[in-house]
Amino acid sequence: MGIKSLAKQALTQKENLRYRFLLAKRQCSYEEWLERQKLLWQEENDKTIPADAGDGDYVFLCASKGVMTSYARRSILCYFRKHPEVRLLYGDEDVQGEGGKPTSPVFKPDWSPDVLDGCFYFGSLVAMRKELFLEAAEEMGTSPLLRTMKENDYLVTDFPEYVRWMRRCVELTDGYRKGSCQIGHVAQILFHCESVREITKFEKAPKVAVAEKGTAQIQAEREDAAGNPVVSVIIPSKDHPELLEKCLNGVRDTAEGLEIEIIVVDNGSSAENRERTEQLAEELTEEKLPVFYLYAPMEFHFSKMCNLGAEKARGQFLLFLNDDVELAVQGCIEGMAALAARPYTGAVGMKLYYPDSVRIQHAGITNLPMGPVHKLQFHEDIEAPEFHSGIEGAAVGHVCENNREALCFSAEYMSCRRNANYLAVTAACLMVERSKFQEAGRFSDELPVAFNDVELCFKLYEAGYRNVCMNGCHAYHHESLSRGDDESVEKLERLLEERDKLYGAHPGMEGGDPYYSVHLNREGLDTKIRPAYETAGNTIQECDKFLAEKTFYDCRRDECVMVRIEAVRSGEIYGWSVVLGDNNACYEKSLMLKKVTEAFSAEANEWYRGPNGVYAIPLEGQYRPDLQENMPDQENVALGGFHVRLKMNLLPPGRYRLGVAVRHRISGAMLMNWSNRCVEL
Asked: What letter does residue 207 receive in the DSSP assignment?
């Protein structure tokens, strides 16, 4: 080995050590994170509540095994005082490990009635206003509770009875009514359990946790009032008779006992495919499953096609179904209708698998800063009986290596086999009552391709309804697993435009989600649900000095520099970049901004050349464990993330294309690549 090779090897080892140091600096343990949070929570509570404030107007109910945190009472009092409409409260919790060290946090969503029906996720500690407690005690007694030394403190002694007792409290707070706001969630660790076993006890709560007016009874009441309800299945389709046939057969095979009508909306199939579709409709109609074929030539516009089908429908329930979705479980349509019939329910979705697999394509939509995403996508839906067994099980969000105790719980992730409330579900398979659909104003004509389903769910949520994904059964969505990101410039620009329209119509919904804990990771392409404290060491990179133009004549464009811009809003840019096939520890990176001075050429997939100069910002790497997990064959990519905030007047006003330039610290080689994203300044 030559001197140059040895020197390069030594320098590479040095860079790897520096990378490991930076990586460790970005990581944060749960214990460290909790100490930081305690200070923040205590400071906020001290500002809100006088030190001598009493809690005589409130009642605390907690598990007999474990302890309340030192700041729990003040946090609860603070919340009650800030929210006078709230009568019942629950909070997050964790487990006290060896030596009293906190482990295994249980991060919960805001009030989720459908989640509670399947799992008593309130957990070890609840608090309520005294008048609610007295009202429940007068009706139910206090047999499951044992008063402690403090006047308004009660220990739970009979867990099944306690669940029934609390279910009645939920009903007294109108928790199952449209727009209910009397149940609150304190997003803080309020209780330390003694063991994971205590948390799993809540998961294994008896089915008495299901509403007294359960699914079957609600359905029966609707049937008594309006006769046997009709379900109208609306299927947009064009030039896919082979897929449509699978879809129609799936409806036929799973809808036994229901009155079903199918409306196929065709926006312009060829003569041959139109004839084949008409034949399919006739065959099913002869089998006493009426299929109405609407031929309405137009440019693809999902919203208009669905709205047209809804206008022609006569059913009490509308099931919007993609022609590439194959229903697979007997009774799934009936189950969706039963959920949709609940007075507080808006849209009902279903868990979708990729074809010929148990790999999840959809189990609900979560609203993150980068936009709406399918949570659990690409995960294998494998049932496992134990609490700390991975994706399935009692209540798992993320699992430590070597199958140790679960790190994190999130109710929407807790079990892929239970109904769970989500902010939105996909219209690939979405049911809603006709009256609620009309109340929400139908699908938006402003969103022809993307986010029309999310926008409908937003409107339902804003009207006071709860959207839910029915994960107890599944269907197959015949999309290609290898399709990957569609980053053609034209489609990406349209997607971003429609996302802007979505949040323009619902500005209060941008970046937030009541069913996704604030303590769960919100960065990037993370398809897992992981605790946010893992990336608590990341900071936003502030850029407040005017940047000078740089030239990159010696910088070669190379597709090995992979660039993904995940979100651009309000002067903030975040995403990630990795160098494929090389050691990423040895590269320094810069964010490039090039002013777009001429038109974009879709044919050439390139902007016409503007000035040679670009503005460049040296990037500080952010810890992104999802990058390493999604690209295990690449070296040192976990610090490939970035989050930059640009101050006002940092650059001349205009539209800038974004890219990344990299320089190898040892060889000096310079590479770059552009993304298809731009920022307006």
From this structure: G
